[in-house]
Design goal:
The protein is of the alpha+beta class. The chain is built from 15 helices and 16 strands. A hairpin with a 2-residue loop joins strand 15 and strand 16. Helix 6 runs parallel beside helix 8. The radius of gyration is 30 Å and the shape is extended.
């Protein structure tokens, strides 16, 4: 859900703020180099005491909103030796806040107390980053570089200019502006250094959050975080969808679960209709699976869980109902308007390559399936020191991916293409046909346009069907192995 993503971002940035002592604001720079992020702040009188709860609203006399806009402007600079050799370079993305009137005019001179307060907030924000850029020690870095260049010249070594870079990203809510940054520096040595920074600015108080807030009263900080979490959790589905649309999301997906405790087919029908009222482009509808070891599993006998037949009825209704509403089923649990299928998941289901980045991220790239360590500190050390940071790595020969191809392909409505199987794995598809014919006679599978795919009823028992297909594949492999042991290496053993 959208609010979970927002919550995680806010929590992360607040944590980074506690861990990082950050100084200041942005100088006069060039034109914006990144897309602006805007928030309309309906104005009202500022509360007597600073608080992190509620909307950041400041109203002018006409009760018309002012808009706080944060853009990233680029500051670039360099220094050279007398012979023209570049000593040091810096390139900073620096946030800059402006205040815009309802007619779109940038506010430069205040005509009301509300406008005065708004400009003061913007200046408090901007001065922080101006000061930061002014205190970066670039002159000192340049002096170090000049000394090392002289040494390199005398010793015949190669020269690499010193470098300072700051890359920022902006996240904005009704109440706060969060800046997350990556500060990169190379000042000689074997490798560069990267530091994560964060600034969090309260639009209500016009102040930055800093570690000092905990020194004064840690409970205030914790209560503020709790209140923000509760505010976002209490957001209705309608409000969440509206927020996503305002953020210009054009392909919106909703996740739904059926088979919940005490849920009936009628109740599920109402939930599904309510979801469609939000006009999503994509729906993922999953049957509840009670995992062993969970509290629900421990009381599954008394939890009022619908039986298998009831869940099956809910699923079959979902398929027919969404089809009638213009949603195409393309995977067991996924439905989309034409052209809105999940490209991300289709990569998995079609054995496409994908690359993941960050702690715990998985990848399947270049014939290798691998995952980064889940340990954040270990991941950071690996990036910083060019040290190993993979928790697993497995090179899979292309011909050994046949089981995955079968398993994943049968999850999709596109199903299995016999010719594609034979081209990719250099074996006949015929080993599957006796079992698939049985499935077809039972109404679980169908052959259309030269491809085999499961029916909605077949999807209900897909695990059993996949198991039967893999058994057929294993039997064929054993038959070929036995033939090879006899010295028979013919490609076609049928």
């Amino acid at each position: 859900m959208e609010w979970i993503v927002i919550l995680v971002l806010i929590a992360l940035l607040l944590l980074l703020c506690m861990l990082t002592a950050c100084v200041a604001p942005v100088p006069e720079t060039e034109e914006p180099t990144a897309a602006s992020q805007e928030i309309a702040v309906p104005e009202q009188k500022q509360p007597d005491s600073g608080t992190m709860t509620g909307a950041a609203t400041f109203t002018q006399a006409a009760s018309e909103p002012l808009t706080y806009t944060v853009v990233l402007k680029t500051l670039e600079d360099s220094a050279a030796a007398a012979d023209g050799t570049t000593l040091a370079v810096r390139s900073y993305e620096l946030p800059e806040m402006t205040v815009t009137l309802p007619d779109g005019t940038v506010l430069t001179e205040a005509a009301s107390p509300a406008e005065t307060a708004a400009l003061e907030r913007a200046e408090a924000f901007n001065s922080r980053f101006r000061d930061w850029a002014g205190a970066d020690g670039f002159d000192e870095v340049t002096a170090w570089a000049e000394e090392e260049l002289a040494f390199r010249t005398e010793s015949g070594g190669n020269w690499t200019p010193y470098t300072l870079e700051l890359d920022c990203s902006v996240y904005q809510t009704e109440q706060m502006v969060c800046i997350q940054a990556e500060y990169y520096s190379y000042t000689g040595g074997a490798h560069p250094n990267t530091v994560l920074l964060a600034w969090n600015f309260d639009l209500m108080t016009g102040q930055f959050f800093a570690p000092e807030i905990l020194a004064a009263d840690g409970q205030i900080f914790l209560d503020a975080v709790r209140d923000e979490i509760i505010r976002q959790i209490d957001m209705t589905p309608e409000a969440a969808v509206e927020a996503a649309r305002k953020a210009k999301f054009q392909n919106l997906s909703l996740d739904l679960i059926y088979g919940l405790p005490h849920q009936t087919l009628e109740g599920w029908q109402k939930n599904l209709s309510a979801a469609l009222d939000l006009t999503p482009e994509h729906l993922s509808c999953y049957g509840l699976k009670v995992e062993e070891g969970t509290p629900l599993f421990a009381r599954r006998g008394t939890a009022g869980l619908p039986g298998d037949d009831a869940q099956a009825d809910m699923y079959l209704y979902t398929v027919e109902f969404l089809k009638a509403q213009g949603y195409e089923q393309y995977e067991i649990s996924n439905f989309a308007k034409p052209g809105c299928a999940s490209r991300h998941n289709l990569k998995y289901w079609t054995l496409g390559e994908y690359a993941g980045f960050g702690p715990g991220a998985h990848s399947d790239f270049g014939g290798v399936r691998y995952a980064y360590t889940k340990d954040l500190e270990g991941y950071i050390r690996g990036v910083r020191d060019h040290a190993p940071m993979l928790s697993e790595s497995d090179r899979i020969p292309p011909l050994d991916r046949d089981t995955e191809w079968v398993m994943l392909g049968l999850r999709t409505t596109a199903g299995l293409d016999p010719k594609a199987f034979e081209r990719r794995f250099r074996r006949r598809f015929t080993c599957f046909l006796p079992f698939l014919d049985q499935c077809a006679r039972a109404g679980y599978a169908v052959e259309e346009d030269g491809r085999w795919h499961l029916t909605p009823r077949g999807f209900l028992v897909s695990n059993q069907i996949i198991g039967g297909m893999l058994d057929a594949l294993a039997a064929d492999k054993q038959r070929r192995a036995d033939a090879a042991a006899r010295g028979d290496f013919r490609v076609n053993l049928d």
